Structure formats: C-alpha cells, structure tokens
Amino acid sequence: MKLDTSGLESAAPVWGAPSELVGGFSAAPSFELPNTTDFDVFQKEAVKMVKPAKGTTTLAFIFKEGVMVAADSRASMGGYISSQSVKKIIEINPYMLGTMAGGAADCQFWHRNLGIKCRLHELANKRRISVTGASKLLANILYSYRGMGLSVGTMIAGWDETGPGLYYVDSEGGRLKGMRFSVGSGSPYAYGVLDNGYRYDMSIEEAAELARRAIYHATFRDGASGGVASVYYVGPNGWKKLSGDDVGELHYKYYPVIPSTVEQEMVEVAGA
Amino acid sequence: MKSDAINVPQNEIAAFLYFSPLSTKCFSAPFTMTKQQANWSPYDNNGGSCVAIAGADYCVIAADTRMSTGYNILTRDYSKICKLADKCVMASSGFQADVKALQKQLAARHLIYQHQHNKQMSCPAMAQLLSNTLYYKRFFPYYSFNVLGGLDNEGKGCVFTYDAVGSYEKVGYSSQGSGSTLIMPFLDNQLKSPSPLLLPAQDAVTPLMEAEAIDLVKTVFASASERDIYTGDKLEIVVINADGIRREYMDLRKD
Prior knowledge:
Structural class of chain B: alpha+beta
GO biological process, one term (chain B): proteolysis involved in protein catabolic process
Organism (chain B): Durio zibethinus (Durian)
Number of strands of chain A: 12
Strand content of chain B: 25-35%
Strand order of the largest sheet of chain A: 10-1-2-11-12
CATH topology of chain A: Glutamine Phosphoribosylpyrophosphate, subunit 1, domain 1
Radius of gyration of chain B: 21 Å
CATH superfamily of chain B: Aminohydrolase, N-terminal nucleophile (Ntn) domain
Number of helices of chain B: 6
CATH architecture of chain A: 4-Layer Sandwich
Order of helices and strands of chain A: HHEEEEEEHHEEEEHHEEH
Largest sheet of chain A: 5 strands, antiparallel
Largest sheet of chain B: 5 strands, antiparallel
Number of domains of chain B: 1
Number of strands of chain B: 12
CATH class of chain B: Alpha Beta
Shape of chain A: flat
Number of domains of chain A: 1
CATH class of chain A: Alpha Beta
Helix content of chain A: 25-40%
Number of helices of chain A: 7
Structural class of chain A: alpha+beta
GO molecular function (chain A): threonine-type endopeptidase activity
Distance between the termini of chain A: 82 Å
GO cellular component, one term (chain B): proteasome core complex
Oligomer: heterodimer
Protein name (chain B): Proteasome subunit beta
Shape of chain B: globular
Strand order of the largest sheet of chain B: 10-1-2-11-12
Low-confidence stretches of chain B: 1-29
CATH architecture of chain B: 4-Layer Sandwich
C-alpha cells in the first residue's frame, strides 16, 4: 500500500547539490511508523494518551437554492473542552466548503491538502474542479490510510457546473452522494430536527433557520457540541457566511424566560 | 526492557540486547506462551504548565521550570520555553525529550527558510510549520502540548494553541500542560472575549496592558502551584514586544 505523501512535500526548491543536512529534508517524505509488533494496540494507546480534539455536530443539505452548511464550534479532549471557537467549516476555495468532524488535526491537515490539490487541478486543467472530483480525491487519500487510526467524518459541499453538490467522505474510505447529511456525536439530534423540517423548496432564510435550529438542538443535548453555531450558504456565486450565533443565546431566543406570577415572596428580615 | 515487545532498528540491537537478557529465554519456555504485552513505553510525562497571552502590541509566554517523572522531581531549573524566531517563542509541556526533538526540528527548518528567503519566519508561518511538523508524526506522535506566542507582521500579539498531533487555532490566550485545567477557567473568566466566529462580528476584548498581563500570569501560576503537584519551583516569563524579547523569573512553591 503506497501511502499518499504529497501533503508532506516541501514546496520550496532546494538550491545546489543536496548536502547531507538538506538531503534529509528533500528526500521523498513519508510518515514515520513506529517499530512495534502490534501497530493497532500502539495506535489505540497513543490515541488514548494524546486525546486528540474531537466531538462535534455538523450538517449540510441541498435544497432548491443551493447548499446549506452548518456546524458547532466545540472541541473536546476526553471530558475537557479544549476550545469553544474551532472553525469546523473549512473554506477549501471560494465555491467549495468542507466540514470537520472527528480528529481536528486529521481534518485540518487533509482539508488543507485537498485545497492544495484542487488548486493544482485548476492550474493544470484551466478549470475549476468539480465537487465530485474533489470528494473523490479526498476519499482516495483517506482510503489509502484506512485502518491506521485516522478519524475524519467530513462533508464536501459546493457548487460546480452541474449545480449544487454534496458528498459525505469518511476515514473508513466511504464516500456517499446525498441530499442531507449530519456528522458527529450530535448528529442524531440534528437529524431529528433536520428531517422533520426539511422541504426541497425552502427559501434561503427558511433553510438557514432550519440549519441553525438543528445545530442548536444538537448542542443542547450533546455534551461534546457547543460554542457558536455557524451557518454557511453555497450558491451559484460561491459560499457566503450567513450567521454565527452563540448557542447559549439561541436558547433564550427560542425559549424565552416568561416571568410568572409570584405566589409567595420571601422578604428580607432586618438583622437580629 | 523486553526487546521482544518492540522491534528496534538493526544498528541498535546490540545496545538493547545488552540490557535485556531475557529476550532469548521466552523461546525456550515450555508449551504455554501467553502473549507478551509491551511493558516499555516510549513516552513519559515530565509535567509542568505553560501559558501565553496576546495583547495589542505584546505577547507574554510563561512556563514553570519544574521537570518531574512520576512522583520524583528531576530538576527545578528546566526551561520549557524556546525562541524559534525573532518574534516567535514556543512553550511546551509533556514529554521533554520529544519537546527537545521538536525544537531542534523547527530550528533546523527555520534555518533553511532563512537561507532560502533571506528573512526570519513570521509567527503565523511558524505556527503552520509547527502544525505540519506535529502532523508529520501522526502515527508516532510527539507527546508535546504546545503554545506558540509572538508578534504577527503588523506587530500585534498572537497566540496559537495546539494539540499533540497538530490541530491548531489562533486565540487570544491559552494554557497547556498538567495545570491547564486549573489555569484555563481562570483565564476564561478574566480574558474571555466574544468568539471570532460570531456574525455580525463583535468587538474583541479590551486589551490588557502589558504589566497587567504579566501580573495575571504570576497570579495564575501561584494558584496552579497550590493545587497541581507538577507545577512549581520557578516561573519563567518571556515578553515579546516592539523593543524585543525580555525574560523575567519569579519563585514559586517548591513543595
């Protein structure tokens, strides 16, 4: 199995004859693998020890006007919230978005790598890459690392010549084309709201509100999701960020506190 | 150390066999052979905490100087802070051998960059280099929890926080290490600003003065030393601003 190592190549050319020092860096890069008899056990132990940041809710769906993409912004390491402001919607290029679920480092690295590959495709072929093509590139890379412990559950959403496109790609090597997806620990809750409220012919505002509510409800019930619910829209002119709302504030917007009549009121007693 | 659990590269076999006389005995053991589990780990945790705070025109990076293993203190005087570039400093806690290797790797790459581009690396560029360097070892991670602090090209303070395999984020402040769960909530309370993801964007936090930030760091470490056994001895504070880099020390509890 030849691993895809293009993500590790240094972009800068090396001048002159490769000396021993520099030669070490310009030689064909590869991921170092530990010399263990039991690779899988080692990876499981390493993952437990390193506790990479994950846990999330992301969703995306195609509707009449284009693609709506939404995500929360919490990253957890075990039970500790390592960040409330993680960017989980990654801008691959001005008309394509990727979502991040699973290992944060895995998603960040491979999405950046995908962005590079998409740009190279544009330069080599003088036209933008399709969503089908971009998702296939990512899926092939992840398939080649199958079984090695990568954790990536991503959706590639974009608008190309054939119209809106949405693919789900994961680190098991799966790649699915579809109209509605939700990925992450909070996805069951998001699906409940999303499936209930979805109609193909919604307006952009209605679709954005549906996406926002679905993320809010997922953050309400899932401890590993929270922070800020970001909503993006992908249309024929590219993507646009529609909103970013703190989910705590969304709660009080959807369920405002209604002051109730007081039956008995406690009165302060003057000091004895 | 049992070398049957972990295969080692050929040229090191001699050294390992010298220290592991048991390796040949297993094969002559009669009949029932239960699977030998690895009881040697390539990792250790040397403890310690680090903090970084970004200001409008400065950056404060601080770490304690205690290095421990298990319940023992190896030294009270070990610096976890490393200057990577003119305006870029990294503090790392975790396994200091991996930290040292990581620092060497970054220093070497920075030197090549300087030769190729005739200038120092900027802090955001170094941040991405660190992320890629960490991810390069995705399948045998550096057990190193880093915060990177410095000034960006406009002279504004920036702090980047990492997990052990390279996921990173630009933030206003961060802490890593054994005391981070004690320190971070306090920093959130004092420094928390509206999230950069909010739309419409809300104004960032009112910036702390440099002296106030240093004071905050000292308070934070004094508190962390009270409740974290791996944090203490001495506090090393590095401040980067337009005038350059300066270093300060403060004593912490030695127990």
